[in-house]
Amino acid sequence: MSLLELIKTTAMAAFNASNPVNIILGKVIEAKPLKIEIHSKLILTDEFLLVAKHLTRHERIASIQYEHPKSYTKNQIGDDIKQTSSTRQNQGESTAVPYEKYEMKYLKLIIEDGLKEGDKVVLHRVQGGQKYFVSDRYKEGHDIWHYQQKQ
């Protein structure tokens, strides 16, 4: 073995021994308590998981600015041209009418869409291998514009 090959082998061994972060794909098999299956022989329970806030029930402060009519092109929002729409119907009124302009500042949103059974998730093994950071949900490429319909 040449000196160069020996240096490369030693460097790779030292790198691998430091347990750098690995990206792993998993599937939520139970939401409460949280359990994520990495493969049939490895199921992570909540004591080994760190979960990004956007994947939990949490609060956000937001503002809404709405204007009708307005169109968004494919390049601005997703895969298709979008047209704004709105309706409101006050109690006692027989028909709904559209908003032309609406603004609400500093409303509190409660995001309820935490991790649920069946979600596919991206995990990162934290250095040392004892904890896993759940960074996001993911979809396969052919499913990115399909939305699950409630039945």
Structure description:
- By secondary structure, the chain is mainly beta.
- Helices cover 10% and strands 38% of the residues.
- The protein has one helix and ten strands, in the order αββββββββββ.
- It has one helix spanning 3-17, and strands spanning 22-30, 35-39, 42-45, 49-51, 58-67, 71-72, 82-83, 101-111, 120-125, 132-137.
- The chain has a six-stranded mixed beta sheet, with no helix packed on it. It has a two-stranded antiparallel sheet with strand order 5-8.
- A hairpin with a 2-residue loop joins strand 2 (35-39) and strand 3.
- The longest helix has 15 residues, at 3-17.
Question: Uncertain segments of ≥5 residues (pLDDT<50)?
Answer: none
Helical content, roughly? Answer: under 10%
- Give the overall shape: elongated
**What is the count of helical runs?**
1
Q: How are helices and strands ordered from N to C?
A: HEEEEEEEEEE
Which sheet architecture does the biggest sheet show? 6 strands, mixed
Task: Tell me the strand order in the biggest sheet.
Answer: 3-2-1-9-10-4
Task: State which percent range the strand residues make up.
Answer: 35-45%
How many DSSP-defined strands?
A: 10
Which quaternary structure do these chains form? single chain
How far apart the termini lie comes to 65 Å
How many whole angstroms does the radius of gyration measure?
Answer: 24 Å
